[in-house]
Amino acid sequence: MSALFSFHGGLKTTRHKTESNQQPILVNPLPPQLTVPLRQHIGAIAKPLVQVGDRVLKGQMIAQADGYISAAVHAPSSGVVTAMELRPVPHPSGLSDECIVIETDGEERWIERQPLDYRQLHPSEVRGALRSAGVVGLGGAVFPSAVKLNLEGQGGQLDTLILNGAECEPWISCDDRIMRERADEIVAGLHIMVHLLQPREVLIGIEDDKVEAIAAMREACAGTNYQVRAIPTLYPSGSVKQLIKLLTGKEIPVDGLPADIGVQCFNVATAQTVHRAIDLGEPVLSRVVTVTGHVARPANVEVLLGTPFSALIAFCGGYRDGVERLIMGGPMMGFALYDDEVPVTKATNCILAAGAGIGELTPEQPQMPCIRCGACVEACPANLLPQQLYWHARAKEFDKAQDYHLFSCIECGCCSYVCPSHIPLVQFYRYAKNEIWAQEKEKQKAELARQRHQARLDRLEREQKERDAKLRQKAPRQAASTAVTPEADKLPIEAAVARAKPHRIAAPADASPASVAADDDRSEPNS
Ligand code: SF4
Ligand code: SF4
């Protein structure tokens, strides 16, 4: 077995897994209403396929992937579409987003499920099926899996396929329970990923305090060449860069992707959904969520997407005293929510009812000046200089913050956690990133406006030139028809002479020149 490597920094956090991982995964009852956001993934929002009033079946696609980086959305249960509108969704911004609301009918009537034999299909067909099934990364990143399972244009064969079972956030335990209870399904999904990526090796990284999960995964992998590796329980070992470093010793270059160094990494729950999508023909309709903190009965619960957080908390016995805020995700990398009526989405791995010492990293303390102690530098797993980033972010010197690799910051919170001056460092980095993105957007908008204005000027100029050219073409014809030339002047005279000629031809053959002249004289007064 190969040796493990290490990464710089990291933290030993107080673990709170046993609060929720001591019982099997429960199943949340069907709620009367499901609010299904169309944007539950990274990339373009899905395009609706239904209208208000439509009856839908469980598993029916209600919005299709729109573009390469996108994912389909399905009805989590049978019922009627009652609304399609903006509703609050779980997002740090607190903003609303497009949702399809389904009144469930309690019948759970399925679409016809069509399992596929992936070995008989071209890889692109398997990827297409995963896209249509709405499979995305369930570790929280929600990046469409079909894109990560396509190496075309990325330099050929993969060295290492990594399955991430680290789950390093101190309160989250859903992946732990999935590995203990559904290891066979995870490995079945892994077979499909291996079929698509043909990696040289397959490594499964699990923190060494998850003893049962490690045993279950080793048993499920028996007879394969997949290697289950126990990694140190050290935050943030579940972060992609750190896990890759731990297992392979490789480092992802700044601004690079795992595929750039021949590695691809997936969450264990994602592998399970890959299996269900292909082997069972079931799209992603639910996920396992850790509900913990100040709730009466913390647990891991399988819940339909679109279920309100409030229903899930009620299922876990409701709030206990002392709740100050809800956090989606863990206390280290999660974000606070504005209310508990928002729906569960594919990104919801944990709901933490925080407050009164639960879910707090450190007790709230007044912020003091930086004393340049360097503790944050020691703790940073990304090898950054957090205090420099802080200075530049605070001074709005965003260019300089970028020079110090602001965008390599994974927002793990290790620096804030160890800072003796209690400076909320990560908040400064998030602020700086948001400002830079906003400025970038403004620049793009201005550039777009400039291009549109230029295009309009070009069009007006072109149209003017076309009009001028047409006028020039018309002008000679008009001139020919209206101009007064000596030749044109002669025409009426010649016509008159021509009209007069028949009379002369009809004149008597013996007419003398004198009589012709007399005729000419007579004709003049009557002409
Ligand atoms: S840990 Fe805090 S006080 Fe120490 S250098 Fe970093 S920011 Fe400054
Ligand atoms: S939040 Fe960013 S700067 Fe702070 S320790 Fe993590 S990676 Fe380093």
Kindly describe this structure.
The protein is α/β, with parallel strands linked by helices and 527 residues long. The chain folds into two domains: 26-106 and 121-328, Rossmann fold (3-Layer(aba) Sandwich); 367-473, no CATH class. The protein is built from 14 helices and 17 strands. The protein has a six-stranded mixed beta sheet with strand order 1-14-13-17-15-16, sandwiched between helices. Strands 2-8-7-4 form a four-stranded antiparallel beta sheet, with no helix packed on it. Strands 11-10-9-12 form a four-stranded parallel beta sheet, sandwiched between helices. α9 crosses α12 (425-482). The relative contact order is 0.11. The model is unreliable at 502-527 (pLDDT under 50). The site of one iron/sulfur cluster has 16 residues, from α9, α11 and α12. One iron/sulfur cluster (SF4) binds at residues 370-376, 386-387, 390, 419-421, 423.
